[in-house]
Amino acid sequence: MDTKEMNQDLDQKKDQKVKKMMLILSKATIDNVYACFILANGARMEGIEAEIFFTFFGLEAVQKKKLEHLHVATVGNPAMHIPTLLGGLPGMESFATNMMKKEMEKLDIPPVGEFIEILEASGAKLWACKLAMDMFHLERKDLVDEISDVITVGDFYQRAEGDNTHLLFI
Amino acid sequence: METTIAGQTIALNNEGYLTDLNQWSREVATHIAKEEGIDLTDEHWPVIEYLQEQHRNEIPLTIRKVGKSGIVNIKEFYALFPGGPLKKASRISGIPKPASCI
Asked: Based on the structure, what is the number of domains in chain B?
């Protein structure tokens, strides 16, 4: 490969770099919420644009009253490695969630509310799904201030235009 | 990898980060910042000094920690070092590339 070809190869690689991450969060278990937030924040840290569309249960992560009370699922979650019957006992979810939160704090991973503030400060855009808002009878005032707007899925797709944009459903 | 900045030979790793903080100077920082497309101002230096201090104390860097430093908030940090603040600021500060995901 001569220098010219190598340069062309490099130029191509450069063009293929991810420019925008459009994340869709549809779940409210704390592991999914953190996966989404860390991906969005990680994108911003690399100079990649990031937007999150909160839909269905994902809306719990941006509801003022609920965001600090999200849980990890102890039932129907084989990765917990505890018998399903035990996982269903009262207090199990809180116990497992507290354990997880302690480990995350050690790694300097912020609580959900603070994470949302960090995302907003980093320039990530946060959107709430209109249809899910209507379905759960939610109003704008139920959501954190960092939400830019309540939009439709069509609006979200419109925002996903541009080269090297990736959509990710969580 | 080596480069010469302001008449001084500087050792860099293959990603362009200084391998020895002792070789760092304000001239070196200004030169690397230019490569990153950043003109250093009076507002950048306290952040750079903070990052170096954290590195000397062996405290792993995260965006959250920088935001709580009392020197710069997260929004300002992104504005001072656009397009990847923690990595760019670390490179300009002459400290290793941060291994943090947050």
From this structure: 1
Structurally, what CATH architecture does the domain formed by A24-169 represent? 3-Layer(aba) Sandwich (3.40)
- Calculate how close chain A gets to B5, using CA atoms only, in Å: 26
Report the residue of A17, A45, A118, A119 to disrupt the B interface, i.e. the one with the largest count of B CBs within 10 Å: A45
Give the count of alpha carbons within 13 A of B40, CB side only: 21
Its pTM stands at 0.87
Give the Cα separation of A90 and A86 in Å (integer): 9
Q: Hey, are the CB atoms on A42 and B101 less than 8 Å from each other? A: yes
| Residue B47 annotated among the catalytic residues of the structure | no
Q: Give A8's pLDDT tier (boundaries 50, 70, 90).
A: low
Calculate mean pLDDT across residues A121-138.
96
Q: What is the pLDDT of residue B67?
A: 93
